[in-house]
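Onboarding guide, step 5: your first structure request.
Type a short instruction followed by the sequence, for example:

Predict the 3D structure of this protein.
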Amino acid sequence: MSMPSYPQQPNADQGQYGAQYGAPEPARSNGFAVTALVLGLLACLFFWTVVGGLLLGLLALVFGILGALRARQGQAPRKGMAIAGAVLGALGLIGSVIVLIIGISVFNSDSYKDFENCMERAQTKSAEDRCAEDFGENLFK
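The system replies with C-alpha cells like these:
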C-alpha cells in the first residue's frame, strides 16, 4: 500500500508567498500620472499667471500623455489619473491663453494708451486716481 499524497504546505520561514508560489512582485507606480495630476491641479489654480497656466499646464499635459502611454503598454498603473492630469493641464493651459489674449488686447487698446498719457501728465495723487477711474470706466465700454 502506498501513502496518500497531500499538497505540500509551505514552511513557516517561507511565509504566505513561499518558494512554491514565487515572491510577490514589487508594487508598481506611475510617477508620470501622479506628477501630471499635481501639475494639472496647480495649472488650474494658477491659470491666471503665465508660469502657472502656460508652463505648469504644458508640463501636466506632457506628463499625462506619457503616463497614459505607459499605462496603456502595461508598464504602469493609474491610466485614469494620467488622463485626469492631462485634462486638467489642458484646461489650465487654455485658461491661461485666454487670460493672455485678453491682457494683450487691453494693453494694445486705445483706452490703455489714453491711461498712460493721463498718468504721465498727472501731477498729484488725486489726478492719478482720476486717470485710473477713467480707464476703468472706458475699459468695459
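Each response can be followed by summary notes, for example: The first helix runs from residue 31 to 45.
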